[in-house]
């Protein structure tokens, strides 16, 4: 604006120079004479015609003459002077000097023609002259023309304000005071109000201090502005102090003051203080208005107190106030952040029904919420809807959609949106690029992530710390630590120093990769740079050491942190509790939980959730429920996560009734289940065989605004397969791609297992071939298929499959070999089974207890007990612990072979480990010893000692007592004497045995 007006005088001078060449040589006397003559003509009603008919006067009419006419002020009618001024400027395009504007403005102001004064001064401002020159001209003219008061300065200030030139307005305000004129309190308040509105707080305090220096007494508007300034700066304590000072000085706050305070407290998160003010204003006779309620709703939502926010909106309606766009948007945003998309969308429909037009901010909250829930289809529908009603998407809208598609690895669609964004003349922001780079990094596509990063720089955007950190994190997740370090070094070369969050990302990655020494070295380097480790730093180390099973190092970290003066917070205690739970140290976890309260760190919802999850994972569901009850007793409102942990725990235990009770309870409390909750419930119901209820739960996912994920589909498909409903299972498998849900090996594996169970082997083979073609064939699916083929006697087909796929797209595991070994053992083909067993060992696959069981069964069927005994010894040597089935097999084998040493060794192991066996094998083993002659038993014991074998004192005691009961006390005495001589039991054992003999 200034540029345009500043050029006009120059253009005029160049074009009209010939016309005024004589005028420029007019003497001062000639100018005064012309001014006198024109002033005389202006006394006439037809002055315009007379001036038009006078060539001489037209020739003499220039800026100096016009200024002289105004200065003389001999025309009694100031309005005629204004008309003459406008006529001359327009008719002859005469560029005016600042003094002409100043004089005319002061004349208008002296005559109380404030509207006309405003017009003149506005034109003066439009001339583009520097504010310093404008103020100087007004000041000079005010003195010469004997201005009445400071009104002309206030009107000038208002002109600058209306044009958005607040800096110039402040210059005039402060300059007026220095020139000896004092603007009114009203003027000061208006300027202060605009300054705080546009967040020009430095100028605000400059003006306010000037006002105080001028001894002006602040009124309610001044105090309100000051309170607002403190609130805008986030300093609600100072705002509160001013509010109290205001009342102490007898200046009663009005509704606007209360609203400013409530708004400030709400935005600062001090919503309880805001609620107290609402009560206070009611006591003072002020009824809350829409602004009051909107701020409170916003504040409550910001603190995630959604239920109270809903109550506040309900109260607002009862007060006869209709919730507006701001109230609805705040509530929708809060509800979306809770994950309750269905409720948020219902509110959106309510808004539309109420005639409230949604704006871009409302749509952004809605789109962001459904995107976080994974429902990109609904996000696109909302996007199309907003375009349809004319709510133009902004950069944030596109960035949310792009980031969400990248999060789901749908990069083609993300790039489409990116290009559409640029076609809409919206410049991609740092947030836009960060969404793409983060998504690519999460997907492991570091090449494209690096390319986008470089393209961003070429486009003129300088990556910030967040983008560098995310790119570095992507490389860390791929264990490319050297490249991650290069990114950090490059960042520092650009003058961007890593913060503690960035360093913690690097340390966390190293700890997860079990590179604890490197993490420690980086910590030392970080400290040398002046960065202090925080609770999150030590939390990463604690998780790393816990993962490695080094609980001693975890405890040392905890103490080291305290030594550095870092008070353990909820995050650290949560990490410590989590570490103990993962190590199975539930007692220590509960002790740490108790200790944190004793140290004045009250557990928060995250700590309770970690403990509940850990207890559930360790099979301590009753203890977990106890902690859950304690959470309620502390007044902490549980969210979806502790409920989900408990529901999952009960489902795994098969206690569907308890799981459903918790599910119902959380829904009744307005806590929306998330996809993990639904998956746990569906899995529990399917495991219980209730696929009908599971399907209703599955369908409910979409009804609640969520999107079923791969796991949801896999669970329900597996449920249908296990209940024989292959048709529906296959239909759901085929439905997955159309709903944008990736098919995974688990779903396919369930289908194959179901087909094999139903004897539909050709279909199972077809499904597996489909997996191979899609590149998602898994060893688990292959195992399910060959198990089905083996059970159907299709060994030739199994061998062909092994030749076709093993080591090409499938790597066999120990289960693969166990299935094949089991088949050959059942067929009596032990040579082939032994060959597979040796091949398994050559592949460095460790046989498990099931593998050994099927081999032992195979040998047992053929009566090859020597091989059984050798395999049993090998199993023990390899550290594989026998289970009850193997102990039973071996007990029977030793007894059949009359292998008394084997019987005693096995008996010793069973009794020491307190193994519970079917058919009371322990009793049969004892009977076998009791039935032998005393001399045979004693000889056997000596032979065991010579071999370096020894019976445990528990076995010795059990054996002596059994002989005492089933044979004779004399025999028992001799055996006991042998045990004592061999040093297997102490002499004191004799006393306890004699006491039992006496009782008998």
TrEMBL record:
Matching SUPFAM superfamilies: HCP-like (SSF81901)
Q: Which InterPro entries match?
A: PPR/CCM1_RNA-binding, PPR_rpt, TPR-like_helical_dom_sf
Q: Where are the PPR repeats?
A: 149-183, 219-253, 254-288, 289-323, 324-358, 359-393, 394-428, 429-463, 464-498, 499-533, 534-568, 569-603, 604-638, 639-673, 674-708, 709-743, 744-778, 813-847, 848-882
Domain of life, per lineage: Eukaryota
Alphabetically sorted, this entry's keywords are: Repeat
Q: Name one Pfam family in it.
A: PPR_3
The residue ranges crossing the membrane are none
Query: Per the similarity annotation, which family is this?
Result: Belongs to the PPR family. P subfamily.
Under NCBIfam families, the record lists: PPR
Designated name of the protein:
Pentacotripeptide-repeat region of PRORP domain-containing protein
């Amino acid at each position: 604006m200034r540029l345009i007006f500043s050029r006009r005088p120059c253009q005029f001078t160049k074009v009209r120079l010939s016309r005024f060449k004589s005028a420029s040589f007019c003497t001062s006397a000639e100018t005064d004479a012309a001014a006198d003559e024109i002033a005389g003509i202006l006394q006439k009603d037809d002055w315009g015609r007379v001036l038009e008919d006078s060539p001489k006067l037209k020739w003499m009419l220039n800026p100096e003459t016009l200024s002289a006419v105004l200065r003389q002020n001999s025309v009694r009618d100031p309005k005629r002077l204004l008309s003459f001024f406008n006529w001359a400027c327009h008719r002859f395009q005469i560029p005016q000097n600042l003094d002409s504007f100043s004089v005319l403005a002061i004349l208008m102001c002296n005559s109380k023609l404030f509207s006309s004064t405003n017009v003149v001064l506005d034109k003066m401002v439009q001339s583009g002259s520097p504010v310093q020159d404008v103020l100087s001209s007004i000041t000079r003219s005010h003195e010469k023309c004997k201005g009445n008061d400071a009104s002309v300065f206030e009107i000038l200030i208002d002109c600058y304000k209306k044009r958005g030139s607040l800096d110039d307005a402040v210059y005039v305000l402060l300059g007026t005071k220095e020139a000896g004129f004092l603007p009114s309190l009203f003027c000061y308040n208006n300027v202060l109000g605009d300054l705080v509105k546009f967040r020009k707080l430095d100028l605000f305090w400059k003006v306010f201090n000037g006002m105080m220096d001028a001894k002006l007494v602040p009124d309610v508007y001044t105090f309100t502005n000051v309170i607002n300034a403190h609130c805008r700066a986030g300093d609600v304590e100072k705002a509160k102090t001013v509010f109290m000072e205001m009342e102490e000085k007898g200046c009663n706050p009005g509704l606007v003051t209360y609203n400013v305070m409530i708004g400030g407290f709400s935005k600062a998160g001090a919503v309880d203080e805001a609620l107290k003010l609402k009560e206070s204003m009611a006591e003072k006779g002020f009824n809350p208005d829409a602004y009051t309620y909107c701020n409170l709703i916003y504040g409550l939502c910001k603190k995630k107190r959604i239920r109270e926010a809903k109550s506040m909106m309900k109260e607002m309606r009862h007060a006869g106030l209709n919730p507006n766009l701001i109230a609805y948007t705040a509530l929708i945003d809060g509800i979306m952040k809770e994950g309750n998309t269905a409720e948020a969308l219902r509110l959106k429909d309510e808004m539309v029904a109420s005639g409230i037009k949604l704006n871009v901010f409302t749509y952004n909250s809605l789109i962001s919420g459904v995107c976080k829930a994974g429902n990109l289809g609904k996000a696109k529908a909302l996007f199309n809807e907003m375009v349809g009603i004319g709510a133009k998407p902004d950069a944030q809208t596109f960035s949310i959609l792009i980031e969400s598609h990248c999060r789901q690895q749908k990069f083609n669609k993300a790039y489409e949106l990116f290009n559409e964004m640029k076609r809409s003349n919206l410049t991609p922001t740092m947030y836009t690029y960060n969404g793409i780079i983060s998504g690519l990094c999460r997907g492991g596509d570091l090449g494209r992530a690096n390319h986008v990063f470089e393209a961003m720089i070429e486009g003129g955007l300088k990556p910030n710390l967040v983008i560098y950190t995310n790119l570095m994190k992507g490389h860390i997740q791929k264990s490319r630590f050297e490249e991650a370090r290069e990114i950090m070094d490059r960042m520092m070369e650009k003058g961007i120093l890593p913060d503690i969050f960035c360093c913690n990302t690097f340390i966390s990655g190293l700890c997860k990769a079990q590179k604890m020494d490197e993490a420690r070295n980086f910590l030392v380097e970080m400290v040398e740079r002046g960065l202090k480790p925080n609770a999150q730093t030590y939390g990463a180390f604690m998780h790393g050491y816990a993962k490695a099973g080094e609980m001693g190092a975890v405890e040392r970290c905890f103490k080291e942190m305290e030594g550095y003066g870092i008070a353990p917070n909820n995050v650290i205690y949560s990490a410590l509790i989590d570490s103990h739970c993962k190590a199975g140290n539930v007692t220590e976890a509960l002790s740490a939980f108790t200790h944190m309260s004793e140290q004045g760190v009250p557990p928060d919802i995250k700590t309770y959730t970690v403990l509940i999850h850990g207890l559930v994972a360790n099979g301590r569901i009753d203890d977990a429920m106890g902690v859950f009850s304690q959470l309620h007793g502390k007044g902490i409102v549980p969210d979806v996560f502790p409920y989900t942990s408990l529901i999952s725990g009960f489902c795994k235990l098969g206690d569907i009734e308890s799981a459903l009770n918790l599910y119902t309870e959380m829904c009744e409390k307005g806590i929306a289940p998330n996809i993990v909750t639904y998956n746990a419930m569906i899995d529990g119901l399917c495991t219980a065989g209730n696929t009908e209820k599971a399907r209703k739960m599955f369908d409910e996912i979409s009804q609640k605004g969520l999107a079923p994920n791969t796991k949801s589909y896999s669970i329900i498909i597996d449920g249908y397969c296990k209940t024989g409903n292959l048709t529906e299972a296959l239909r759901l498998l085929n439905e997955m791609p159309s709903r944008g849900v990736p098919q995974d090996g688990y779903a396919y594996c369930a289908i194959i297992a179901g087909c094999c169970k139903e004897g539909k082997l050709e279909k199972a083979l077809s499904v597996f071939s489909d997996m191979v073609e899609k590149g998602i064939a898994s060893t688990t699916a292959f195992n399910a298929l060959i198990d089905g083929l083996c059970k159907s006697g299709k060994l030739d087909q199994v061998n062909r499959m092994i030749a076709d796929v093993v080591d090409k797209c499938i790597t066999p595991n120990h289960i693969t070999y166990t299935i094949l070994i089991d088949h050959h053992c059942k067929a009596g083909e032990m040579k082939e089974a032994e060959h597979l067993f040796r091949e398994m060992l050559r592949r460095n696959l460790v046989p498990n207890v099931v593998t050994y069981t099927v081999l032992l069964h195979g040998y047992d069927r053929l009566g090859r007990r020597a091989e059984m005994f050798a395999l049993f010894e090998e199993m023990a040597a390899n550290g594989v612990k026998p289970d009850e089935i193997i102990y039973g097999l071996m007990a029977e084998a030793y007894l059949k072979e009359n292998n008394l040493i084997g019987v005693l060794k096995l008996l010793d192991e069973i009794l020491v480990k307190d193994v519970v066996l079917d058919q009371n094998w322990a009793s049969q083993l004892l009977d076998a010893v009791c039935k032998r002659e005393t001399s045979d038993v004693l000889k056997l014991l000596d032979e065991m000692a010579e071999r370096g074998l020894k019976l445990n004192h528990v076995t010795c005691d059990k054996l002596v007592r059994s002989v005492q009961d089933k044979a004779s006390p004399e025999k028992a005495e001799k055996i006991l004497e042998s045990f004592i001589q061999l040093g297997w039991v102490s002499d004191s054992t004799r006393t306890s045995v004699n006491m039992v003999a006496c009782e008998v």
